[in-house]
Each structure stands twice: as structure tokens, then as C-alpha cells.
Amino acid sequence: MSCSSSSSSSPFVFICFLILFYLSPTSLSKTTNKTAKTQLSVDYYAKSCPQLEQLVGSVTSQQFKETPVSAAATIRLFFHDCFVDGCDGSILISTVPGSKVLAEKDAVDNKDLRKEGFESITKAKALVESKCPGAVSCADILAIAARDFVHLAGGPYYQVKKGRWDGKLSMASRVPSNLPHSNYTIDQLIKLFNTKGLTIEELVVLSGAHTIGFAHCEQFVSRLYDYHGTKQPDPALDPRLLKALRMSCPQSGGNTDIVAPFDVTTPFLFDHTYYANLEAKLGLLASDQHLFLDPRTKTLVQELGKDKQKFFQAFAIAMDKMGSIGVKRGTRHGEKRKDCSVHM
Ligand code: HEM
Fold first, then answer.
1. Domain 52-179 class?
2. Which residue's CA is the nearest one to ligand 1's atom 1?
3. Can 80 be counted among the known catalytic residues?
4. Which residue, 60, 95, 160, 268, is most buried by CB atoms nearer than 10 A?
5. What is the domain class of 13-30+181-320 according to CATH?
6. Where are the domains of the chain?
7. Which of 80, 210, 290, 343 is catalytic?
8. How do strand 334-335 and strand 166-167 relate by DSSP bridges?
9. Segments of the chain with pLDDT less than 50
10. Ligand 1 proximity of 323 Cβ (cutoff 6 Å)
């Protein structure tokens, strides 16, 4: 199998692999379906912008045709928005020129957010503003666009609840402690997700977003040569994948633009192969592979690896719950920006 970036403008260099993987039969357990208490509603814009979903949809489908990487980029953007002080569009704000206070998007942890994600939202917002001026928040447009891209990439379609206002604050200093890192232990991941009101099951389910997209060598290179100071690679990494990754990612001095697909078999398809890959030691990040290694999460990984519908259903519910983190309402804490990159 070979693959390539369909985004001619992308600065990323994609690595493609020929990998065989095996699915093993697994047992079933129950996913938690808790929904968060929010004031959001599906028909929030029924009067003020009834055609909102079609407007955003026309942009996302065009964007997906032209640059398929926009899907992974926008889904990740939504995650990074929600985890840092709530789903309030604050990830979209640019640092004020000359200001010493950097905005979230300029934090080190956000440096690899692709421009295609921001572009999708900018285009959708411009179209929405032309038809429904001043009515719709950037945060809601991001939530809708993320759902559209999940579906366009082959994943589930679900209703998006709306009514988020845009946050007035965006500070890079808020980012590091609120986002997970690729070298996090399972305990750290569980703890962080818990602070966002998300369960251990939702950690496993939302990590399934890594069924599409790519990661830079720096995010996993420690697994290839000197895992935890052992001078050995991570034993939980398949030897064929190890070999392929080593060819593209030297221990030091490599091209920093090189990326590898999370899902070596179907990197552009939103499916449940991510979980089967974990069982086959084909997880790219240590944090992904931990989900199969830890007894608290392994059963659910096995279950989702063999049941696409169950994954899709659980993912839709978990995205809805993630989308309700730290929602802001009203002018005291919120605003509706005309330009998503500029705080009014
Ligand atoms: C569980 C903890 C998580 C960790 C440690 C993590 C970490 C990462 C890292 C390191 C990258 C690669 C960045 C790069 O090198 O360019 C990445 C990419 C990505 N993440 Fe996560 N992530 C996590 C959870 C999530 C969640 C919950 C979602 C969405 C629901 C998500 C969606 C994505 C997507 C779609 C990409 C690919 C982006 C692209 O190709 O442009 N991640 N993540």
C-alpha cells in the first residue's frame, strides 16, 4: 500500500508504510454514555440562522475535497479548544501584534496545529457572517466543522448542540497543563480527562480520533532508540513498524517536518482500525499504545477494535460531551466575534 498527501500546499512530508496487522478476537464491556449538563441545544440558531449547518457544510465538503488533511486538522483543533478553558473558540484568536501575552495558538503545544484547520473555520465563518451577520459564534462553527469532518472522513454523523459563546481570553500559559502529551502515563491521561469531566472510557473512545492524521517524529522518536533510558526501543512497538519509523526518523538531526500516520493502514479513513492497530503493537505514540497495555483500558480497546458501530456510537456521544466542556454564555464571559482570530 502506498499513500500520499493530497494537500499540495501542505508542508508536511508523509511517510507511508507497508504493514500487515492482525485482529484478535476480544471480549465486550460497556461504554459509559454519560452526557454533560449543558445549556446547549440542537436548534439554538433555528431563528437567527436556520441555514447554518448547510453553510458550514458547503465549506467543509469543499475543503475536504481539496485538502483531506483538513479533517484531522480541524478535529484536533476542536479538541485543543475544548481542553483549554472550554469550547469557546479561544484557540482561534491570534496574538495581538506587539503584545507580550501570547495567545493559545502560539503555545509550544499548539505549534503543530495545521493551518488547514484554521482555514476551514475562517472560510466557514466568512460565509456564515455574509448570511447571518453577528449571529453565530466561532466556537459553534468549530464544533459543527469538526463533526462534518468526522463524517466526511468516513466516521459517524451526529447532531451538534449549539449555543457556545466565544471566550474573551486566550493565553498560551494556560495550554501546557491542560493538554495531554505523547509521553503521558495512563494515570496522567486518566487524571487530565477526569479534570475535564471525561471518564476513562471516554479517554479510550476519543483517542480513536487518531484513526486519521499524522504525528511528527519528535512525538515518538524516544520509542525508537532509547525508551525510558534503556538504550533499547519500546518493546511494545512492532519490529517492522520500528524499522520503517527509524528509516524516516533518525535519533537526532532529522528533518523536523517529517510525519508518520497514526493509522498505518488507512490514514485518511475514519474507522476503528486504530484499536486493532494497538493490539498489533502498531500504536504510534506511547500514549496510544498504553491504552492497550493497561488492564483498565485494554478490554475496551479490544472491544472497539472489533465493533465499528460501537466505536462510532460511543465516539459521537463522547464528542458531544467534550463539546460541552466549559461552555460560556452571555456577554459577561463571552462574545460573538466577527473575525474568529480577533478578540473584539
Ligand atoms: C489522549 C491523549 C492525546 C494525546 C497525548 C494526543 C497527542 C497528539 C499528538 C502528539 C499529535 C501529533 C501532533 C504532531 O506531531 O503534529 C496528535 C495529533 C492528532 N490528534 Fe491527538 N492526542 C490525544 C487525544 C486526542 C483527542 C481526544 C482527539 C480528538 C478527539 C485528538 C485528535 C488528533 C488528531 C485528529 C490528530 C492528527 C492531526 C493532524 O494530522 O493534523 N487527539 N495528537
1. mainly alpha
2. 207
3. yes
4. 60
5. mainly alpha
6. 13-30+181-320, 52-179
7. 80
8. antiparallel
9. 1-37
10. no
